[in-house]
Amino acid sequence: MMVYALRRILGAIPTLFVIVTLAFFMMRAAPGGPFDSERRLPPEVERNVKAAYDLDKPLVQQYGIYLGKLAHGDLGPSYKNKDFTVTQLIATGLPVSMRLGLCAMTLALLLGTFLGVMAALRQNRWQDYSVMGVAMLGITIPTFVTAPLLTLVFGIYGVTLFGHEFSLPVGGWNGGALANMVLPVTVLALPQIAVVSRLMRGSMVEVLRANYIRTARAKGLPVTRIVVRHALRAAVLPLVSYLGPALAAILTGSLIVEQIFGLPGIGRYFIQGALNRDYTLVMGVVICYAALVILLNLLADIVYGILDPKVRLA
Amino acid sequence: MSALLEISDLDVRFDLPDGEVHAVKNAGLIINPGECLGVVGESGSGKSQLFLAAFGLLAANGRASGSVKYRGEEILGTSPQRLNMLRGSAVTMIFQDPLTSLTPHMKVGAQITEALRLHRNVPHTEAEKQARAMLDYVRIPESARRLNQYPHELSGGMRQRVMIAMATITGPDLIIADEPTTALDVTVQAQILEILRNLKDEKHTAIAMVSHDMGVIAGIADRVQVMRHGEIVESGGADEIFYAPRHAYTRMLLDAIPKADESPSPVTDIGAPLLTVDDLKVSFPIKNGLFAPAQTLRAVDGISFTLHQGETLGVVGESGCGKSTLARAVLQLLPKTGGRVVWLGRDLDAQTQSDIRRLREDFQIVFQDPLASLDPRMPIGVSIAEPLKALEPQLRRETVRQRVRAMMQRVGLEPGWINRYPHELSGGQNQRVGLARAMIVGPKMLVCDEAVSALDVSIQAQIVALIRNLQAETGLALIFISHDLSVVRRLSHRVMVLYLGRVVELAPSAALYADPRHPYTRALLSAIPTPDPRIERAKTRLLLTGDLPSPLDPRAQLTFLKSRLGEPGYRPKLEQVAPQHFVAEHD
Q1: A230 and B103 in contact by Cβ < 8 A?
Q2: What are the residues whose beta carbons fall under 8 Å from the beta carbon of B202, sequence distance 6 or more?
Q3: Inter-chain residue contact A211 with B152, CB threshold 8 Å
Q4: Residues 293..312 of A with a Cβ closer than 8 Å to B: which?
Q5: Which residues of A247-257 are buried (b: 16+ CB within 10 A; e: fewer)?
Q6: What is the pLDDT of residues A29-78, one digit of tens each?
Q7: ipTM value for the complex
Q8: Which residue of B has its CA nearest to A215?
Q9: pTM score above 0.90
């Protein structure tokens, strides 16, 4: 397995290289540049700025310089966030986004799996229909609707539970305090819970029809044991393939959630960087995202191999 | 003596989107302690659903009504808790298809001990010990190692033994065996039946044997019930059912079984050989991980034969003997590794791809699974017409249509069904479509690769009769491949027995069945269950022990020639023992 993982990681280097190259040239192909603004800079100032960032050199040479720095782990300075390097921006933002994303995904996995299994066991009864109905809502309602709604209910009005008035902070990071994380994590988790429960229900229904489940029932095993020991492991397989890319997306943050709750994650850099032609920042987050996708897919394959003994990783 | 299981007035219904299906109608049966009840019927007769319903194992859309008494206690509609105490403890089940019936991600040991630990509250180490003893009982070698393996790492026969061990470990009163040997090779089937017979004789376990195979039932059942369309049409002692059947359906089932005195239609004119196969070899590389060198699996390892016009060559052997690979290599559907295939004097190696495509008009093939071999999105008329359009593109549409209709009539299909889809037809009808598709171009040779294996016996008899008629009319040469020696016998003039990619015996049909010379042929023949309880009871079985050796093992070829084990790579030679009768060297 170590050999397998090593081979996959080595195999990812050319993939990353292609991504970097494509991103680099596509970004430059977009019209405009980082220092174009409403008020044009005086020509000599612009020339000086461009020279300082090597932007006056031929494109291929710029590419060479970028690759050279990248090989040393230097992602370059951000053109728009003055005084910060891209590495610094990512290093401060990524942990925030990852923490939120991990919490949301864990919540979604636990709750979604539970709801999906419930629905599958009560197939075509009211429990099934209600779980699937709510899940459909969770998928169709976008986060920019749920976020303000939850803010309104829990933040502005407050909710009275057991005689206590609960009110949650509606914004800010506050060093990652639990209270500040509740609402953004919930908003991020809701659509994931919906997807996970639907996936789980589908594959569980399938697995419960399998011959070996009939064998388990013929052995006189109680339902919980049949689900936990005989069905769950096989039913979770489609979920594993979904989780790889989904986790990569959620760990790199969400512009909407970060904007609404005022969180210092990296999700906003994707949009801001692209709009401002902040070449180095875009390259930085793209590399970061691509590496995560590759890593998590590898992880998903390894988990798959552990769950399904028929798969031999070689 | 009070009955162990008494079922009366049992009705089973399924709710389907297009209405209700009445799967079991008013069925009743009694099983006494220690006896074996055989329940026979063809697919869809409700024989499996009867027992699943009795123990609350129906699918979610099924409903059962009536009465099921276990030792006098009514158990139909009782609480799941009570049923769970019975199931897996006093009443256990063995299902068909052990690969899908075992949990793929659980080790064999955990699955065997599970019921024991749950019902008998046996501690882990003790349960493991008992599981090992159980594996020894069902004759699985190296029991300690096997307990730590997953189902997919075992052979089909071994998996079914694991199922039996699982069903026996709690010491039940009653084992329900639902088609336990279907889809297993005959020699493995014989071993499994032997184990079940031992359970009945030594442990006095009652067995409900559900099967479509009269031969399997004859060897083990004390009493027999025959089911058709959800109803029990006849029941009685085994001898009554087999020697004095009263119901027309029982007689039909017994008549449909291939008999010893049947012989194929005589070869009309033996002309020049149509097909000559000389030392044909096909091998596949098997990769073993990253660093291990690839091994070579010799699927076909030097087979030679000739086939004449109007002649049927039967090819028999167990799974993995290379019979399907042989067929595909002969028909140029697989690349061969060595040897020559000569068709009407033309070496097929020398032909270009387009020449071979044109030659396909002369040789056609019919596959095993009739439904899976037809395009589900094509009406059957289009499927049948396709080879004609491909090979004779100059034909006018109206001519093609007429020939398709004529061909459908010829194979016993209603020409009005031309626009139906495969899923609207039964298995037997779909196989007729397969035959029509192959025959429409007027081939000189037809290869039937397990063409009747998936069909019920009565349908099997009809298809075999149809193939025989087609041959008599057209002088077709046939290569008839099957694992079932009795079906092969019905059609074949000569029979070739394969073992691990090589011929062990080749002889005229009559000689092979009357006077088999090779020990493997003898074991195969002795393993076929005969639908005659007296013969079955008296039979001394030549059981091959254990599994087929791995074809990757270079010494596997010398299983029957142990004296040459010192010379690895040695291949037993064919020797002529009588006119046209060839046998591989053996000890």
Answers
A1: yes
A2: none
A3: no
A4: 307-310, 312
A5: bbbbbbbbbbb
A6: 888 878 776 677 788 888 888 888 888 888 899 899 989 888 888 888 88
A7: 0.80
A8: B101
A9: no
